[in-house]
Amino acid sequence: METKLTLRLDKLVIEKAKSYANSHHISLSRMIESYLDSMTKKDTAVIEITPLVKSLSGVIHPEKESDYSKDIQII
Fold this sequence. Notes:
Helices cover 43% and strands 0% of the residues. It is mostly helical. The chain has a domain at 7-54. The radius of gyration is 24 Å and the shape is elongated.
């Protein structure tokens, strides 16, 4: 079901958004709908940490903070 929404935005922001939407061949309404939909979706993806990765956690202990730029060789 679609319904109408009225927004008050800065004129320059609207002009730039319309230009962006036009250059991407999408309506401004569809672009805003897509943005709001993506912002309100629950993050259902669960990243599983494998036993191997768990076993490697904490294996390397840096002795001190290092300046890694000294380790880079420029050829």
